[in-house]
Structures are given as structure tokens and as C-alpha cells.
Amino acid sequence: MMVRTSVLNKIPLLIPQEDHAKAPEFNFSLKEQEWISMIKKCNNMKELKQVHGQILKLGFICSSFCAGNLLSTCALSEWGSMDYACSIFGEISDPGSFEYNTVIRGHVKDMNLEEAILWYIHMIEDGVEPGNFSYPALLKVCARFRALKQGKQIHGQIFKFGHEDDVFVQNSLINMYGKCGEIKESCTVFEQMDQRTIASWSALIAAHANLGLWSDCLKVFGEMKSEGCWRAEESTLVSVISACTHLDALDYGKSTHGYLVRNMSGLNVIVETSLIDMYVKCGCLEKGLILFQRMENKNHMSYSAIISGLALHGRGEEALRIYHEMLKERLEPDDVVYVGILSACSHAGLVEEGLKCFDRMRLEHRIEPTIQHYGCMVDLLGRAGRLEEALELIKGMPMEPNDVLWRSLLSACRVHQNVELGEVAAKNLFQLNSRNASDYVMLCNMYAQAKMWEKMAEIRTKMVNEGISQVPGSCLVEVNRKFYKFVSQDRSHTCNDEVYEMLHQMEWQLKFEGYSPDTSLVLFDVDEEEKRQRLSTHCQKLAIAFALIKTSQRSPIRIVRNVRMCSDCHTYTKLISMTYERDIVVRDRNRFHHFKDGTCSSENW
User: Smallest Cα–Cα separation from 376: which of 446, 276, 301, 307?
Assistant: First the structure.
């Protein structure tokens, strides 16, 4: 094993000599370049201070080149000291823009916005004209602190000193405005550029991604590719993959993955993790698992992505296996990993395992549970019918419960038909001024199941009086890389006639499979025929009909819902998957249902 030796031990000059007369003469005639080399070999402040002392003794501080290297090493090294760097700056007789920029960059490294700007002002006051290297650092720290006011002032200074056409400055402005939420300003700077670089495109794509403008993010990336002369950076592709994840744009995500494979010799852990996250959240869990298993280096984010993905798909036992694999690798799970593993246990009905993980998180890994962790535990206990325990957990929380927890308990009470506790959950929800129509609908459904018609009518009346309307169910279905939206009972679609004709054929086919609409799910006071008609035009059925028309036989159908799937649509989709021999993947808010050959993956949860 190689033992690291201090830089001081490599210079005879810096080692105390018992007999200076016998010291070799060349030790006292080191040239400037050799001292600069020694500065760069310093590994801590102690070594730097001793080299600094010798430089002062020999008079090399008068050399701007030597002093500049000493200053930059002290200011920009991770182990450096800005206080000491400022003292070195004070020894320089005629500091120029390089020295001022170095101190500014040092303060930016330490994320000290105020000092960075003060030193810029000192530079102006001392008559030193800032160059194009002065502004990227200042704009970087403004972006970090979302300091839009200061960023705009610096933009004014850029115009004043004539650096508005410098490509590095323009790229920094695009980034700063994007981080500060001023996407129009980012676009304006980009459009005014005479010369663009790959960094310009990357900054604009990142600016859109930072604000969650995912469609625009893909649009800009498409424009960049259409120019045919740019090779996207990995950071840009991470933004594009994130956009695909949020838009459920699986085909676009696959093509981006292909672009990566063709153009990159190897993928770093951030890109690989982004790909895993994209595949699992777009319904391709198996592809995500393959990528995870092939990873040479895994970190917390990699484990978190795959565990959360397994939770989405109801694969709790596999999530637990990977969690234990993580522990064996001596990677300590963080709070994000525990949200994923508790959610996985909840969706898979692994109650005891979930309770053990919750205790392990608190007692062994010393992680204080957040409201998200408590939400997972309430969901876990509620799904298992342990409603009293779920209520006690909510009451014992160190923070005030939010609407998510009470909604989770209300949902569990509806499923397990516990009206008394359901009313407690609903009361607390309404005290939080919840105007979420689904809360009222859940309560209505619970009363309807219990045949408490008067109370159901009261809630319906309350919704009308308070102007709370139920959000209509809608679905997005992907066909040929485009998404088409369908709303329940909607007849405005451009392919309306074809869709309803297909819907009629589907119903006719399913009658032979024994399908009968569950009209008890329609809570309106209408006759049976209208109830059947309402059920037949649920958004999921319209989306499936459209996909059957527009896609090739045996190709999978992918659907994203805005509300939970009703039991009738669930039964209907199982039968369609068997009758038409299609794999159908439905994202139902925070979970996936994989329908194949008349079965659904959720039936094993």
C-alpha cells in the first residue's frame, strides 16, 4: 500500500536543516515554475501556509503568476479557506481581473452570494474592468439562490461592459433565468444568440425541465436533434428521460435510450438510474429490473428507484429482497428508500414486514418518520382492515395529520364498510377545508353500500350547495407516440363513430364471456338501462376501444387514468385482455394494473 507523503517532505528547503552550510545550493534557487508546481501539490491548508511562507521569504509573491496560483489554490480547493485567500489577495500589489475573478469564484464555491457580489463591486470600484469570465460564476450563485433581482442587475452589467454576445455568458443567463422561473427570459436569450453550442441547448432544455414543462422540454430536444449537428450531453438526456417519465412517453423514452446506447461508450449511474425510473413508471417493470441488475455501480438513488417501481407494480416481496440486498452491500437506506419499501409492503399486503421495516427505520437507522412514512403506514394498516390501529397511529403522530392520511383512512373504511370510523375520517377531512370531490364521493359510496340513503342525499346536497363538482374520469392512451384523451360519456372525439361502434362490438363479445355490468356502482337515481349506458361509456372503455381500432393485433395497450378504476372497468378490462389477446397496462394514479389472459396483477396484492 502506498503511503501518502506530505508535499513538504519533497522539498529539502522546507525541511529544517541542522547545518545550512551543507545544504545543496539548488535548494535555494528553485525557479518560479517549480514553486508553482509545489503549490499545486498541496493537499491541505497547513502545507499551503508553509509554501506561502517560503514564497514570501524568497520574494516570489511579487510574481503575479506565482501569486495568482497561490490565490486560486487557496480559494478554489475543497480544503481551502476564503479568509486566508483574501489575506493572500491583500499581498498582491496590483490585482487584475484574474485575481478578482478567483476570489469571486471562491465565494461562489462556498455559495456566498453576498460576498461574491461585494467583490464584484470592489473590482469595479478599483477600476478593474470585468471580463467574460467574471459573469458565469456570479450568475451561477444567483441561480443557486433563485436571486432573480441580483441576476437581472448582473445582466444589466453584462450589457454595460459589452459581454452580451459572449456564448459562455449567454449560456449562464439561460440557466439563471430558468432556475429563477423566468422561462420566457431564458428563451429570449437563446433566440438572440448568433452562435449556439451544445451547452446552450442543454441549458434551455434544463430550464424547461426545472419548471416541469415536460412537453416543451421534449420539443426543444427535438429541435436540437433536427439540426443534426449536436451530440447531446448526458445531463441533457437525463432531463429528456425525466420528461418521458412524467409524460408516460414510453416510446420516446425508448428512442432516447437507443440514442444513449449508440452515442455513449458507457452510462454513468445518474443516467442509468433515470432510465430505470422511466421504465418502471411507464409500466415496463421488467426492463427496469434488467437495467438495475446489469448496473456495475449502484447507489441510494438506484435502489430507491427500483424499490419504488416494484411498489408501483405491487411486487412487495421483490422490493423487500432488493432492500435486504442493499443492506448487505452496506448501503444505509435513507428516508426516500423507506418511503418506497413501506409503500411496497402496503400495496402487497405485507403488514408484519412493513411494521418491522418501520421500526428498523426508527430504531436502527435513526431516521425520524416524516408524514409520508406515516401515510404509508396508515395505508398499510387500512388495507389490512386494521382500522383502529391506523386511527391510533394518526392520533399518536408528532405532527398534525394532513388530508392524505385522513383520505387514506376514509378509503379503507369504505372498502371494509366501517361507517363509524369512516365518518371520523370524513369529519377531519372536511375540517381541513377539503374541497376534493373524491372525498365526498367516497363518503357517498360508503353510505350507499350501507343503504344509508338519507345521509348519502345530505352529502350530495352539500356538494351542490358548496359548488363542489366531481372531476370526470379521464384516460390517456398512447398510440403511435401520441397521447389521446378520453372523458367518460364523451362524444366529442374525432373518431367518435368508430369508437362507439367498436364499443358495441366489445360489449357483444363480452356477453358470451358472461359479463354483466355492475350497475350498483352508479349512484344516480336513474333506471337500470341508463345505469348500464353510463357504465358502458366510462373513459377506460372508450380508450380501449380506440386502441383496438388504431393499433396492430397483439400489440400492448397502455392507459393512464386520472382517478381510480372502478370494479366494473376492472372486470371488463380483464375479459377484453383475454377475448382480444392483448396485454393492457393501466396506471391507476399511484399503481399499475397489468391485464393479461383474463387476469390482473393487482389480484395478487
Answer: 307
